[in-house]
Amino acid sequence: MKLDHKDYKLLQLLDANARTPLSQIAKKIGVSPEVAHYRLKRLEEEQIITQYQVIINLSALHITQFKICLALEQLISAQLEIIIKTLKEKSSIKWIVTCKGNWDIIIAIESEDMIKGDVIKDEVLALFQGHIRKKAITILIEAQTFNRDYLTGQKTVIHDTRSITANKQEIIIDDKDHQIIKLLAENARASVVDIAKKLRIDSRVVIYHIRKLEKNKIILGYKIALNYAKLNIQFHKLFIELNGTDTSQSKALTNYLKIHPNCIHHVKVFGSWELEPEFETATEQEFENILRELKDKFTSIIKKIDVITIAKEHKFVYF
After folding, report:
1. The CATH fold of domain 60-147+227-316
2. Domain 1-46 belongs to what topology?
3. pTM of the entire structure?
4. How many CB atoms within 10 Å of residue 88?
């Protein structure tokens, strides 16, 4: 499927806010609502847009996320597929990717307490028993997600999404809040009417809860997941080990990642490395240029960079 500039603009607008009304999208890309509807349906049917996602402030809900990185041995593809299928069914597992590079698979787990998280971790590792050559575990400290400005080259507003910090106040949500978040996690573009029907409540109640969740910074945004293969996009994840604690250089590096149009996530972790930024690029050469620039600009603070290429994203939900 060949995309034109209006298609890419539509994707960028939905990535900035997946709940943007179609009438507004049509006006911004300069087409009629009917044409905008046609373009959107085509992107969905061709599975270029694979999911509409709700972005949740995990720290406000007292949720901890950690990742398990595994290098595997003596595991055939059929066995791996069975394991991944089992992992996808676990609600506590939010992200599963197979990779090219130092790691073969990465699994992100979310839990309300470390004890429960440790149990889930052991369950995951047990599935790979006898096939783990190397492993690493990191705990998420802070994460930001950025709009995909590279799709059109036009700048959008930078917005934080998830931030897990010790001084973040925990906010209590009720059953209705939780049910609405779950439905939005399945489809962040679901209409208020559809949500109300599923929960058997008035639409005005749904609107009230969504606005409350947004006001309290529980819901921090809505975006889309893309089919990398169909768009010929390469997805790279970096594991950056820092050298020392040069505050000025550290801030400069963070700012570089925030403003770079190809950086989609800036992630700080506690573990064997400190940073896990993620980039989407159109070509390998484009990514090589980014990598070279990172090394040249921040040679005094970056000790080591490991790179993996995401071969396939098997599961990705923010909540």
Report:
1. Alpha-Beta Plaits (3.30.70)
2. Arc Repressor Mutant, subunit A (1.10.10)
3. 0.91
4. 11
